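Chapter review: from sequence to fold.
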Amino acid sequence: MKQYKKKQRAIRLRLLSSGQMGEEALSQTFGVAQAEYPEAVFKGFGLEDPPTPYELACFLFTWALPKGSRGEETEGRSALLWWLAGIGAEAIEKISPGWEPKAGAYIRRLMETPMFAVWALGTDMRPAIKSPVEARALLSFGSRRDYRIVEAFKSMRKSVYINSHISSGKRGRGVERWLPEFRPLWHTLDERIDWEEDGKWAPRLAGVRIEAGKLLGKWPGWVPEKREDRVLRDSDLEGVRIMENPHPQLPWRTL
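The token string follows.
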């Protein structure tokens, strides 16, 4: 246990030593979805109506990511995941200069993966289904994928119907994109505030912030700086077509 605590403390100190990024990781906006993409990341999809940052975070934090090559692609993937988790673009820029074009390049790499491309498009897939295996494949997001499922997505991606949509960037007849039952982050700041006010995890959260404050030499009652990027509120979701969250307070609140 002592060894675990020592490693935990070392990891926290390493993160906190990054300055703004460390503070934002402890702030109230961490774990809250981003409102909109930086332009370079948005362009990586090649779609007029790509998944929202919330949808993308839910998918990528659940799905087994394709391994990136060394260098800029790996850096872009890492930066993208930190940004999706709630770290502001400016804070990431200080750690990984020029991260946005690299993240956009990684999105383009993901769009070459048939399952991701079909999911990201978010269109009615019925015209592309040619077999029962393909129909079952569309129900397999987030589950273990065998060879037949992988091949089914390859087949659908090559279809004239899907290829024309992705080539044009048009979503067509949009449908709700699949999202996991248990979402890995909050959609809005209001959801996080509700979670904090519930009180179940307040002592642990306060303990982490107190320890972090001591590591940084901050005064008692120190409150970490929030990210400057715009944060979604519940009112921003009116009219947004996203698969309903069956557990809006995140899985650990239901335990």
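Two observations follow directly from the output. The radius of gyration is 20 Å. The chain has 13 helices and no strands.
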